[in-house]
User: Fold this.
Amino acid sequence: MERTEGGGRRARRHDPERRTRILDAALDVLVTDGAAGITHRKVAARADVPLGSVTYHFASLAELQAEAFGWYVERRTAEFEGLFTGVEAREDLVEVLVELVRGGPSRRRSAVLGFELHLAALRDPALRALTQRWTRDSRAVLARFTGPEVAASLDALLEGLIMHALLAADPEPRETTRAAIVRALAQAIGPES
Assistant:
């Protein structure tokens, strides 16, 4: 709803971005409350839309959650691809991967959403298919620099490092993260020449 000068609400007659705002709000709720805590009311409040707008665009909570996760994966896949645009040497690759693990608040939010998606996918075959496609796409990007087998191992290492970074009370030094990635690449594809 838009606010009037007096602070009251005025109905939006034409709001082509409403559906997208609802999806973004659903992602915000998933970050703060998890998949188990998402409700139509929380999403409506976060998106600043009437509850009926949420149920109009999404017939069920499961549909809302699935579409929000799909929206997240679509954007995250494009962002991930973009991270590697200027990578030409192994050192460039290492720096991108270290930043991926150690990134700031926006990366933290993204990582939380990724793990919420994976947890929800344990019980939902449609979400499992989404995570499998996302994993395949991410590994394909990594494989351009490492080959497919190394990409799979590197992907698993990155997931673990990201989870540990999220959970750590005292973050490990950047150099520790960097050393783990360098070691993994050296073991898998040999030392940099």
